[in-house]
Amino acid sequence: ERLVDLRAHRHRSLEETVLSKVSVFFTMVLIFTYFFYSSDYDILDDHRRVLDELRPSPPRLLPDARSHRNRTASADAEQVDAPGQLPQHMSDSAKESAQNNGIPVSNTFGTKRFPQAIIIGVKKGGTRALLEFLRIHPDVRAVGSEPHFFDRFYDRGLEWYRNLMPRTLDGQITMEKTPSYFVTKEAPSRVCIMNCQTKLIVVVRDPVTRAVSDYTQTLSKNPGLPSFQSLALKNSTTGVIDTTWSAVRIGLYAKHLENWLQYFPLSHFLFVSGERLVSDPAGEMGRVQDFLGLKRVVSDKHFYFNQTKGFPCLKKPEGSSRPRCLGKSKGRPHPQIPSEILQRLRDFYRPFNHLFYQMSGQDFGWD
Ligand SMILES: Nc1ncnc2c1ncn2[C@@H]1O[C@H](COP(=O)(O)OS(=O)(=O)O)[C@@H](OP(=O)(O)O)[C@H]1O
């Protein structure tokens, strides 16, 4: 009888252990689901980026014999087909039939390629908005975070860089954005070593507002920062602008473009107006898609103006419960800067802006 009792007791405690494990598992699933669906767009995106970057390099399978446009032979020599996920835009039936055939489709789709187009600048111009808007396009795959290869991590080598890229199918465009490339002296020659056919996109914004936006970002990380005017002026009595301050220097677009034009012809550049990206995102996206040789998929039906955010946001994508606005670090309120300092900066930038309009063949209307 004691033996039977003991067995029954053991059975019960085993059942209890299993039950408690199952309930812990479901609680975790519930918590995860809650955070997944209630989180901010940027947080989700950050998770995806971190996961993408932490994912170990896949083992090499088949050598990729396919050639791809816009790439240099040396840079391409090591291309391989590699395991990847089924492409998002692939129809469910195609995915199913591939899986039903027992073919390990997820192991043969996609190739990591060098970007054919890069958003090279400018910092605080609206580069994140542009990249996120482009990512809606089924023929664009982009790295979420900024790789900083051509400025900070060049010594890691081209293969390191290519490994950061998402997998693409033939016909899809690989992209990345790192706004500091535009002001990095060595970047043009380095990009050209990778591929001189690379398309270059520069989102430009009134250099005065851009400088204030840049300052606002630094201030948010370092509240003890000196005032904007004390950093912008070399000397408060003479009113001479301090061009060594990066927030000022970045706005000398003509000077930076000159450096790039030593390696790339003007036809390789598209200058996107940061202002119009806010006032008419669909119009500006039309130009970008044309430049990239893409079908005009991203259009006004994808955007709505969010009154609370004060910026255009993406409408609820299919299968998502929420519309997507950029995170809090995009569209921050700017501190009030004395009007005479802003005027001084406007006067300072005017000749550089005019030179830039001439060089780019576009009048951005900042003056
Ligand atoms: N749709 C939308 N939503 C939010 N913000 C938008 C959008 N379109 C353009 N912008 C402007 O983008 C500015 C930030 O530029 P970047 O993304 O290039 O900044 S960064 O260099 O990557 O830090 C950011 O600058 P601040 O307003 O100064 O924060 C915005 O003005």
TrEMBL record:
Region (Disordered): 55-101
SUPFAM superfamilies listed in its UniProt record: P-loop containing nucleoside triphosphate hydrolases
Topological category with respect to the lipid bilayer: Single-pass type II membrane protein
Active site per database record: K124 (for sulfotransferase activity)
UniProt keyword list: Disulfide bond, Glycoprotein, Golgi apparatus, Membrane, Signal-anchor, Transferase, Transmembrane, Transmembrane helix
Record has Ribonucleoprotein as a keyword: no
Broad class of the protein's primary localization: membrane
Cell compartment(s), UniProt: Endomembrane system; Golgi apparatus membrane
TM segment ranges: 18-37
Residues involved in 3'-phosphoadenylyl sulfate binding: K124, G125, G126, T127, R128, R205, S213, K330, G331, R332, P333, H334
Any matching Pfam family: Sulfotransfer_1
InterPro entries: NST/OST, P-loop_NTPase, Sulfotransferase_dom
GO CC annotations, alphabetized: Golgi membrane
Enzyme Commission numbers on file: 2.8.2.-
SS bonds (residue pairs): C313-C325
Ranges where the Sulfotransferase domain occurs: 115-350
GO molecular function, one term: [heparan sulfate]-glucosamine 3-sulfotransferase activity
Ranges annotated as biased composition (Polar residues): 88-101
Family: Belongs to the sulfotransferase 1 family.
Protein name: Sulfotransferase
Highest classification ranks of the organism: Eukaryota, Metazoa, Chordata, Craniata, Vertebrata
